[in-house]
Predict the 3D structure of the following.
Amino acid sequence: MNLQRFLASAFPAAHGHWRWLAIVLAAAGCGIMFFVLQALPGRARKALIAAVTFLAGLFYALEFFWPVRRGTDENFLTFAVPTVGNVINVLAAFTLGLGVFSLVRIHSSKIVKLREGWPNSVVLLVSIVVMAVAGLRFEETRFFRSLFRDVLNSFDAAMFATLAFFIISAAYRAFRVKSAEATLLMGAALVVMLGQIPIGQYLTHWIPEKGSFASLLRLDNISNWLLLTVNAPATRAIGFGLGIGGLAIALRLWLSLERGAFFEAKADES
Amino acid sequence: MSALSETLQTIDRRYLYATLLIIVIVGLLVEIPLPLAVGPQARGFYDAVEQADPNKIAIVSTLWSASTQGENRPQTRVILEHLMRRKLRFALIAFGDPQSTILAQEIAEDLARAHGYEYGKQWINLGYRADIAGTLKGIVRDLNETLKQDSIRNRPLAQFEVMRGVHNIRDVGLIAEVSASGNYVSWLGLVVGSTDAPFCYAPTSVMAPELYTYIDSGQMKGMLFGIKGAAEYERLLGIRGFTSRAITPVSLALVLLFVLIGLGNYGMYASRKKGGTA
């Protein structure tokens, strides 16, 4: 059994005008649902959200823990995994739209009220519109490619590249060896970084790469040893801690025990 | 002496910026012949591609934008170059940043022309997905149902020759991810245990140290350590391209960093010796 095939046969794909009608009806349905949810009292909305969150989380938990059928690696929920994955993707795509909506709302208000820095908001909104139109209507043209590659990519790369300057300045000012721990850290950092770059490797390149006791003294080998034998166990230990913490947070979110959520404040107001 | 130690601790940042800029420009213009040892992680990645089953498809996942393209672009390039040299079928998929799918596609199109790779026959772009976990859980079970269409021609995956015989993760012969993020957690947690396909990772340098634990455990068969990893891979492929050259300014910048840290600390030490404040 496949849920998607069942849904595809129950609701065959619409074409032509019917497709647009289906989109309009779906949008209208979503709009109505949105207003109904908005009209709900805070406590009811909180309970509804808690129930939906629990059911959504329950699917993957059950699918993972439920025993599989004999001779297969599937249980009664496995068939729905691709469909649920697609639903999550659609929801995640909505969050992108929500981000854009939020940006537009905040910056439009800034422009209307002529708050400080409003010209930057104008640039942002114009950029969003131009890039969206170029991407949706002219994706195969030089116009879009130029905007994407020559403008967006260049700005993005230039912004990130400035980090190198800040790192140099910050490391120079902040990295002072004032204790035994700081000395150890600096020594390890020096060896690891030297072992990763050709200039550092050049210092010990005359030592055989492997097959001899002396090869242990090559900077790249010492660097690799530090990363694998010292760094990896420490990272693993931190990973265990993070994993346990993550599990606790996931459980709190799943069971809606996390306090301070937006709708909790709304519920308290009502 | 006191004035010098004070100066060494408080060099104007504009001088630091100017020195770094000059070093990077000189490093890019002047080639300095330096040795570059190929590390075991890059060799592991190379071997995984070399030993990948030619009857199965390779998945190359990308999660990077133009901001980290200095490292991630050459990594993507060398991986795709190797896949094409081996005549392996591959599928691109992108997560995290919508830029990623276009950037990786540009590289693939560029290399495909050189290697005579045809879209839909030897390679395909599965596009960008906003959610990582849901998608990965889905492709473990049913790749076609989860991803449905390609992102260039918007046609069902089953119509492409490259996707023939590919139903789920068991039909994948290699998984490689080029990333500026911690996406490896999702791959390791949701996919790697369900397949025999080797999983290799190409992160930015700043992320690489946290991945050694998975190299050590054998869950990752190989790793490209930032741009240095890409340069090592170029060496394994017998290419002497831009990456091999770009490693020089990186080296010089790190040497500048060491020198500046040394000067600052010497200034502090000298100042303390004289009874000044650090």
